[in-house]
Design a protein that fits this description.
Elements lengths: L5 E3 L5 E3 L6 H9 L8 H14 L4 H14 L5 H4 L4 H8 L8 H17 L5 H6 L20 H12 L7 H10 L21
Helix pairs in contact: 2-3, 2-6, 2-9, 8-9
Length: 198
């Protein structure tokens, strides 16, 4: 298993299997996944998308991201916080996104919670305050956990602040996606590329 953990592409670069087979996933892996996101709107968008991803493949969410951005006002939390029950019904008819009422309502709830966090320094600083002292260094997928003490703590803290669809596994995926931890496999051409971890 470990020897097949990374695939060397035609460009000579090593990537995990999930980022090798699909052009969209490869582009996401090479340019975005694991890179630091430290702005409010960016972190809010990722929290929403990770919530929508629960139970689905990330490729599905990535393909729908342009439609999500259009449907949710570019993930501007001030705009989304103003969404009404009529907006929820509109979104439930939008075939471009994941039409799940609980997840749509969570995105609106999370927008309101994001605005409230501005009084405490903002969402991005709040989420980044859960950065661990060290990052995993996995050689295979079997070595990548699905939660961590920090993701469990972040999940609890966000729930206390009024956020929804922010379970520990979802928050671990968020921490991976926005560079708080580096779970690029050792040997991947992206390992250490975030600049967050030496």
């Amino acid at each position: 298993m470990a020897e097949a953990a990374l695939i060397t592409g035609e460009d000579g670069l090593s990537r995990p299997l999930w980022a090798s087979a699909d052009a969209l996933l490869r582009e996401y892996y090479d340019t975005e996944w694991g890179m630091p996101v430290r702005d409010e709107q960016g972190v809010y968008e990722r929290i929403c998308l990770e919530g929508f991803q629960a139970g689905l493949s990330w490729a599905t969410i990535l393909r729908k991201r342009p439609a999500f951005r259009q449907a949710f006002a570019g993930f501007d939390p001030e705009a989304v916080a103003e969404f009404t029950p009529e907006d929820v019904e509109r979104l439930m008819l939008d075939e471009g996104i994941v039409r799940n009422r609980a997840k749509i309502n969570a995105a609106i709830t999370n927008a309101t919670a994001t605005l409230a966090l501005r009084e405490e320094g903002g969402l991005a600083d709040f989420v980044w305050s859960f950065q661990p002292a060290e990052t995993p260094a996995p050689a295979s997928f079997a070595e990548i956990p699905s939660t961590s003490p920090e993701s469990i703590a972040l999940s609890k803290a966000l729930r206390k602040k009024g956020f929804a669809f922010v379970g520990p596994t979802t928050m671990f995926a968020l921490m991976e996606a926005i560079g708080i931890i580096d779970t690029h496999l050792v040997g991947s051409h992206r390992r250490g590329s975030s600049g967050v971890w030496a």
